[in-house]
Structures are given as structure tokens and as C-alpha cells.
Design goal:
Strand content: 15-25%
Shape: rod-shaped
Helix content: 40-55%
Structural class: alpha+beta
Number of helices: 7
Radius of gyration: 70 Å
Largest sheet: 7 strands, antiparallel
Order of helices and strands: HHHHHHEEEEEEEEEEHEEE
């Protein structure tokens, strides 16, 4: 009996040593976080491995009484269950290994986070095209519209000829449908369309002018056409009669001195004839339009104006 007990005790010691070596190697491979779990799981198999030997010992004692002495010295059957239990302990200690399967999910978390960041990223702002430029307005100045002009120079028929130009300024602003075409003071240009000198015997000097260009407030130079404005020189009939009378009086005085009453009549006739000749030899007055004269010119046709955008 003592030999059997000694054999069983030796087997238990060998199993304990084997388990210690296995657990020590496993603890060195696992992380510090799983050390406590492996130690608890390793302790459980050792207690389980220690519990069965009394029952086995009782079975062996029953069988050894009928068996021979050589069969009692074989401790191998008692070692096999311990070896199997150590294998179960190894399998139990390797149970926490499924934790490594979580690493793919953890590695996928940055990708999921990047996808969320991409979804939360603000979309680029849409570029709004600039609005189209406004279209220029177009108005029509009706025929017959009056353009009030003030001459910027004196026009004299004795010094001007057909086709000469002159300048004037707009005296009133030109506004159509709320659009200011030309402001007051805008430049106007015109020409001499007709001219007539005064005759030596009869006929008075005359002149006709009209506007040809209008400078608008937006810098345009528009060609225009207006009706003619006529100017005639004043008559010189009173001055001619005075010249004849003066000549007759001078002739009568000379005749009276020379030959009495009859000579006075002859002298008056001769003096009157001389005065009439002087009047006939003298030209009449020219047609003159002084500077700053205000004239209303009438448009002879419609004028279309298109606004010039800056």
C-alpha cells in the first residue's frame, strides 16, 4: 500500500511540475491584461486534477488486492487522466484568443471615421454668374420738337458766306420719356443756309441759318436737321429820303446865290438829284443776329437716340 501511495504521490508531483511549466510559458506569451485571467483558469484545472486521485486510488486498491504484486507497481494508469486534464487546462487557457479577432473591426474604425468626415465636409459653394449688363434705352424725339438755342457768337451777313458754321448752346434741357438727352448748356452747331447782300438800288440783306449737330450728355454727337430761321436787314428808306432832302436844300441854296429865285429852283432840283444818287450809290444795312440771341429751332424730322452705357 505504501508503494502505491508513493507512486501516486510521485505522479501528482510530476503533474504539478508539468502544469507549472506550462502555465509559466503561457503567462510569458500573453499580455499583462490577460495575466489575471490565465492564473485563475490555470488554478481551476489544478484543483480539478487534484480531486480525482482519491477515487482512482480507491479503485486501484480494490483491483490490486486481486492482482499480483508486479501489476501493483505500474503507476501508468493514474498518470493518463492527469495528462488529459492538463490538455483541457491548456485548451481552457487559450480561450481568450478570440479577442484578437476584434482588431479588424478596430482597424476599420479609422476608415469609417474618414467616411463620416467626408460626408460631413461642406459642399463647395456654387459660383453665381454675374448678372447680364443692362440694355441701353432708346427714345425718339418727335418731329416738330423745339430746341431752344442761344447764340455763342454774332452772325453778320456782310462778313459771312454760304456754308459758314456757327456755335450755340442749348438754353433748355432736352428730356424725352425721363431720359435726359442733352442738358442745359449743351453744345449746338449750325450752318448758314442762305445769304443775300443788300442792293444798291433796291433789296435788303437777308440770312437763313439752321442747326446741324447736337452734343448729348453721354458724349454722343448727333446729326440733326431743323427748319430755317430767317433774318432780314432793316430798311434804309428813311435815311435815303433824308439824303435826298439834304441834297435838295444844298442845291437850292447854291442856286439862290447864283441866280435868284429861278436859280434857287434849279439848284434845288440839282441838289435833290445829287442826294438821290448818293442814296442809290450807298448799300443798305446788313442782316445781323447778335450774340446771346435766343432762337427756337424746330426739328424737321424725328430723331432716334440710343443711350450710351459707360
Amino acid at each position: 500500500m505504501k508503494i502505491v501511495q508513493i507512486g501516486i504521490l510521485a505522479a501528482l508531483i510530476a503533474c504539478g511540475v508539468l502544469l507549472f511549466l506550462v502555465l509559466k510559458g503561457r503567462q510569458s506569451e500573453q499580455a499583462a491584461v490577460t495575466t489575471a485571467e490565465t492564473s485563475e483558469q490555470a488554478a481551476a484545472p489544478s484543483s480539478q486534477a487534484a480531486a480525482p486521485p482519491p477515487a482512482e486510488q480507491a479503485q486501484q486498491l480494490a483491483t490490486e488486492t486481486a492482482a499480483s504484486a508486479p501489476s501493483r507497481a505500474k503507476p501508468a494508469p493514474s498518470v493518463k487522466p492527469a495528462a488529459q486534464k492538463t490538455v483541457t487546462a491548456k485548451s481552457q487557457t487559450t480561450a481568450p484568443e478570440p479577442k484578437a479577432e476584434q482588431t479588424p473591426a478596430q482597424s476599420s474604425q479609422p476608415a469609417a471615421a474618414s467616411n463620416v468626415a467626408e460626408q460631413k465636409a461642406p459642399a463647395p459653394l456654387a459660383v453665381t454668374p454675374p448678372p447680364p449688363p443692362p440694355e441701353p434705352r432708346k427714345v425718339t424725339v418727335a418731329a416738330g420738337t423745339l430746341l431752344s438755342a442761344r447764340l455763342a457768337e454774332t452772325l453778320d451777313s456782310s462778313r459771312m458766306k454760304l456754308g459758314d458754321t456757327f456755335t450755340a448752346n442749348l438754353d433748355q434741357p432736352l428730356v424725352v420719356d425721363g431720359l435726359v438727352i442733352a442738358e442745359r448748356g449743351a453744345r449746338l452747331e449750325g450752318k448758314v443756309a442762305e445769304i443775300q447782300e443788300s442792293g444798291r438800288v433796291k433789296g435788303l440783306a437777308a440770312m437763313a441759318i439752321h442747326l446741324t449737330k447736337l452734343h448729348t450728355s453721354d458724349g454722343q454727337e448727333l446729326a440733326i436737321e431743323t427748319d430755317l430761321f430767317h433774318k432780314q436787314a432793316p430798311t434804309s428808306r428813311g435815311e435815303d429820303v433824308k439824303k435826298v432832302g439834304i441834297g435838295a436844300g444844298i442845291g437850292a441854296a447854291i442856286g439862290a446865290i447864283a441866280g435868284g429865285g429861278k436859280g434857287a429852283g434849279i439848284g434845288a432840283a440839282v441838289g435833290g438829284a445829287a442826294g438821290a444818287g448818293t442814296a442809290a450809290a450807298t448799300r443798305g444795312k446788313p442782316a445781323v443776329i447778335p450774340v446771346e440771341t435766343r432762337i427756337d429751332f424746330r426739328l424737321s424730322g424725328p430723331l432716334t437716340v440710343t443711350e450710351k452705357l459707360k
